[in-house]
Request: fold
Amino acid sequence: MPELTIDDVAWDQEFSDVQRPHKPQESEEFIEAVVSVGKFTSPLLVIKDEETYPLIDGYHRYRWWSENGRDLEIAPPRVEIMDRLTSRPAAKYWMRLYQNGQRNLTDEEQRFQRGKALAEKVLAMKIECGRSASDVVAEHAADQGISRSRAYREKAYAEHLYPTDAPDAPLRVRRGAVPQ
Reply:
């Protein structure tokens, strides 16, 4: 496993579009925490994608350090590879459930994130191991502590808001953009 630095990290617009922006209060708290501690406590998370290492978690840390950290002599965040995420859809599924799910989301945002995550997981499991959608939905529902019918409804809700397979959908939407 190679030892990576921030210079090895690739900004990936497809993954960046999944990212939920910080609210003003979150940004202030983030900056205050980094400056008061003098370092980053969480790593940047990347996946191995062909010959690059696209960023899947830590966009705010990456951007802030690139713009401010060098001037303040704060060491860059460490970089870790998420080996278990073996495809782009699997990475987006993880981002929607775990990375975006760490923020204070409204009930509707949570519903959208779970539905969109399920759509990503169905695609990832089809690509990686040929699993059926119904098996993936059952597993997702059990993992999230919701019924299968609720999982299907949330997936349909997310796909209704942003029909990712529609040929006329804007490119940003097809890439999994989160509603603001």
